[in-house]
From TrEMBL:
Binding of ATP, residues: 290-297
Molecular functions per Gene Ontology: actin filament binding; ATP binding; calmodulin binding; microfilament motor activity
Gene3D superfamilies the UniProt entry points to: 1.10.10.820, Kinesin motor domain (3.40.850.10), Myosin VI head, motor domain, U50 subdomain (1.20.120.720)
Region (Disordered): 1-55, 101-121
Family matches, as Pfam families: Myosin_head, SH3_VIII-1_N
Stated name of the protein: Myosin-2
GO BP terms in the entry: actin filament organization; actin filament-based movement
Cellular-component GO terms for this entry: cytoplasm; membrane; myosin complex
Biased composition annotated in UniProt, kind: Basic and acidic residues: 20-33
Myosin N-terminal SH3-like domain ranges (all copies): 134-183
Biased composition annotated in UniProt, kind: Polar residues: 1-13
Length: 512
């Protein structure tokens, strides 16, 4: 318990240090007449708002109300709604019509509307239940195992409701287990905020519906303006398709750039950030978050490709920036049980643009690399890709110079019974990496030094020790480090000294 607490404190402090240094740097660079930079992070553990109710009760939409700092026009119910267009998705006409449900956001105060009074709450209260029964509207019904089924309420008795499910069954459930469902017309809508009911099953259903249609991006067009100068822009939900969905490439880049396409997409998000930066002359951030395997790395690459296409010039620097991905992935990604290409580090990529909107530089900061993976692997996982790539892809000459063997001959790599990844050619990846190293202009000498160090690490893993002298000392078992009877480490001018004493054993690497 103590260990995990202190480890999380360490992690937090490392991240916080980085944010703090960015904040300080922003402050130093910021002209004096501008408002203060980012507020410091609150110490308290702020709770996220309930997923059932995204907007506060006092929130009103009538005529031209200011929606959290942005203007949102129109009324709800049976009228068309015009949403603000400062978003990347340019949603203008909501599809809501007479068939639409009367309730659009939790609290609607529209005295001008002449349609039937809508149920106001996300939860089914007495009036709402009567309304839902009368209109035979769909509800979500929570099943004993936690999943949600669509149905219609037939009758209620006290706190219990009898619901006819879409699969033909009729079941009795507590009314608290029912949530209103959206009308069919909102099926697969691209902006979640346009859902009449923004409850958990409705959101999940919408995501699932879009996913089955290969529409992997869903927007949440809610712009938040905090009391300070900070603004959280639109939210994009990306569902990992685990296949090629053919929504990327030059044609899509131009279509989003020229606003010929306005459906949610990471291109649209990057475009919005770029435009905001150019218009407001202010730094912009895209934060990509999600669990392992969610698609963060891919999404970051797609966003970078779009920005490179937008801000590319004749300098070719955008290509160098894109090539860094191959290098970072080779040295910092590995196969885990959840993701064949899992990033085992965090990264902060800064792309610098000139006043003309052209890319003029980039800084990539990495942090929290999982170093233990080099020496210890869980079953069916791999160490960092670079080790396997080096063994599989290096030329015969290089192999000879490094006295390199196949990956399966190294303990650090063979301990997990996982040497290859289905569908991945490590040799090809190594050639791709060499090209990337050339593009960023790393000299061949430096490249070889890096490969030598990698080979040395692999050989080091093959060394074992024997206990001598009544268990007070250990000795390296000779002939193990390279399998050819040469004392370990000698080929590369690498000498290994081991002492067993207090402080704990030290291994000195002397490179000569
Ligand atoms: N937009 C996409 N299109 C096609 N495949 C994708 C897409 N996004 C992710 N994938 C697939 O999912 C895999 C995992 O994605 P990715 O490595 O980006 O996840 P991650 O969130 O960065 O995971 P981790 O936190 O473990 O690094 C990718 O290797 C790729 O096969």
């Amino acid at each position: 318990m103590m260990l995990s607490a202190s480890m999380s404190a360490l992690t937090r402090s490392s991240l916080e240090e980085m944010l703090e240094s960015l904040r300080k740097r922003d402050e130093e660079e910021r002209p004096k007449d501008l408002p203060p930079a980012l507020p410091s992070r609150p110490q308290s553990r702020a709770r996220l708002p309930s997923a059932r109710r995204m907007l506060p009760n006092s929130f009103k939409v009538d005529g031209e109300n200011n929606v959290m700092g942005h203007r949102r026009k129109g009324s709800f119910g049976c009228k068309k709604v015009k949403l603000h267009v400062e978003s990347p998705y340019e949603v203008i006409e909501e599809k809501v019509s007479e068939q639409s449900p009367p309730c659009v956001v939790p609290t609607v105060n529209d005295s001008s509307t002449d349609c039937e009074a809508p149920p106001q709450s996300e939860e089914l209260e007495d009036d709402n239940v009567a309304y839902f029964i009368k209109k035979k509207l769909h509800v979500w019904c929570k099943q004993p195992k936690g999943q949600w089924e669509l149905g219609t309420i037939q009758s209620t008795s006290g706190e219990e409701a009898s619901v006819s499910l879409s699969n033909g069954n009729v079941m009795k459930v507590a009314r608290s287990e029912l949530l209103p469902a959206n009308p069919d017309i909102l099926e697969g809508i691209e902006d979640l905020i346009q859902l009449s009911y923004l409850n958990e099953p409705s959101v999940l259903h919408n995501l699932q519906y879009r996913y089955t249609q290969d529409m992997i991006y869903v927007g949440l067009l809610l712009w938040l303006v905090f009391p300070t100068q900070s603004k959280a822009g639109p939210i994009l939900i990306a569902l990992n398709p685990f296949k090629d969905v053919k929504v990327y490439g030059n044609d899509y880049v131009s279509a989003y750039r020229q606003k010929l396409l306005d459906s949610p997409h990471v291109y649209a998000l990057a475009d919005a950030a770029y435009n905001e930066m150019m218009n407001d002359e202010a730094n912009q951030s895209i934060i990509i978050s999600g669990e392992s395997g969610a698609g963060k790395t891919e999404t970051a690459k797609i966003a970078m490709q779009y920005l490179a296409a937008l801000g590319g010039g004749c300098s070719g620097i955008e290509d160098e920036i894109l090539q860094t991905n191959f290098i970072l992935e080779a040295f910092g990604n590995a196969k885990t049980s959840r993701n064949d290409n899992s990033s085992r580090f965090g990264k902060l990529i800064e792309i610098h643009f000139s006043a003309m909107g052209k890319i003029c530089g980039a800084v990539v900061q990495t942090f929290l690399l999982e170093k233990s993976r080099v020496v210890q692997l869980a079953l069916d996982e791999r160490s960092y890709h670079i080790f396997y790539q080096l063994c599989a892809g290096s030329s015969r000459d290089l192999k000879e110079r490094l006295n390199l063997r196949t990956a399966s001959e190294y303990k650090y790599l063979n301990q997990s019974d996982c040497i290859t990844i289905d569908g991945v050619n490590d040799a090809k990846k190594f050639n791709r990496l060499m090209k990337a190293l050339d593009v960023i202009r790393m000299s061949k000498e430096d490249q070889e030094l890096v490969f030598k160090m990698l080979a040395a690490i692999l050989w080091l893993g093959n060394i074992s020790f024997k206990v001598t002298d009544n268990e007070n000392h250990i000795e390296v078992v000779n002939d193990e480090g390279n399998g050819e009877g040469v004392p370990c480490g000698q080929q590369y001018g690498l000498k290994v000294y081991i002492t067993l004493s207090y402080p704990p054993p030290l291994i000195h690497f002397v490179y000569d």
